[in-house]
Amino acid sequence: MKRVLLHICCGICASWSIEKLKLDGYDVTGFFYNPNIQPVEEYQRRLQVARDVCAAYGIALIEGVYDPDLWQTRVSGLEQEPEGGTRCEVCYRVRLAATAARSGQAGIEFIATTLTISPHKDEEVINKIGISVASQAFLKYNFKKEDGFKKANEFAKNKGLYRQHYCGCSYSVRSGSIKGR
Question: What is the pTM of this model?
Answer without folding.
Answer: 0.93
